[in-house]
Write a structure and sequence with these properties.
37% of the residues lie in helices and 23% in strands. The protein is of the alpha/beta class. Helix 6 links the parallel strand 4 and strand 5. It starts with a helix and ends with a strand. Bound molecules: S-adenosylmethionine.
């Protein structure tokens, strides 16, 4: 596993995930079930939905959330052929509706008005802040008017938390790596802040609601540790 992670860190995002795909579900990078379950619980109250899209689906974590919520069809989109192959194998023969797997860069999605729900888990660290407007515009176009784009978002770590320093350290090492090495491997933990994300969603043509995921408790100031961002295409 260490070898794969090292090779992954020295290659492109797409190729890195191709290499990691067979073992991805045993890494901490696969979104844990408790996040998926929490998102599914909230989305259930907002449905029913007809057609769902998992943006950066990887091995299909979000597809598993979408299937019980969507009556007509579910699509997973990712640019790593290796991840898509692993996803296909993992959900083969499981339940309904049928799942379609699409290989595409989500900064150029091949859909227009095709879904009434899009979700994304654990992938936004792969996009620089400057890429967010394009990414959100692509999801916006892929949704039908009134369609929802939903994803969990954690509150920032407090300054005195060890995790704050761990994430800052990780991002600093990645920045140094990306200055020195090509191809770049964009993966940052601290580049997707609520305010900037909300502003970019609004500019892309969404209205935004923030629903607390109470399963994850609250901070000392009373704000939720985790929220489900629910953006509705106007
Ligand atoms: C950390 S994994 C998350 C996978 C899955 N959503 C989960 O929660 O377990 C990130 C995924 O995003 C995909 N990805 C990153 N950048 C992408 C892009 N520009 N277009 C399509 N997929 C992308 C990677 O191939 C990878 O499968």
């Amino acid at each position: 596993m260490f070898r794969e992670l090292t090779v992954q860190a020295l290659t492109s995002i797409e190729r890195g995930y191709d290499l990691l795909a067979p073992k991805f579900d045993h890494t901490p990078f696969r979104t844990p079930d408790r996040f998926l379950d929490a998102a599914a619980g909230t989305l259930r109250t907002l449905g029913p939905f007809e057609a769902g899209l998992d943006v950066c689906c990887g091995t299909g974590a979000g597809v598993r959330v979408l299937r019980p919520l969507c009556r007509e069809r579910v699509t997973g989109v990712d640019f790593s052929a290796g991840m898509l192959a692993a996803a296909q194998e993992a959900v083969a023969g499981e339940g309904t509706p049928a799942v379609e797997w699409v290989r595409a860069d989500v900064r150029a999605l091949p859909f227009t008005g095709a879904f009434d729900l899009a979700v994304s888990f654990g992938a936004f660290g792969h996009f620089l802040p400057a890429e967010r407007p394009k990414l959100f515009a692509e999801v916006h176009r892929s949704l039908r008017p009134g369609g929802l784009f939903a994803f969990p978002l954690g509150a920032p770590q407090p300054f005195r938390s060890p995790l704050y320093w761990a994430l800052l350290g990780f991002d600093s090492v990645m920045r140094a790596r990306n200055l020195l090495w090509r191809p770049q491997f964009v993966m940052y933990y601290r580049t997707f802040p609520l305010r900037g994300v909300r502003d970019d969603l609004v500019r892309a043509g969404f209205t935004v609601r923030l629903l607390p995921l109470e399963e994850f408790g609250r901070r000392e100031d009373g704000s939720p540790n985790w929220r489900l961002v629910v953006a509705r295409r106007i």
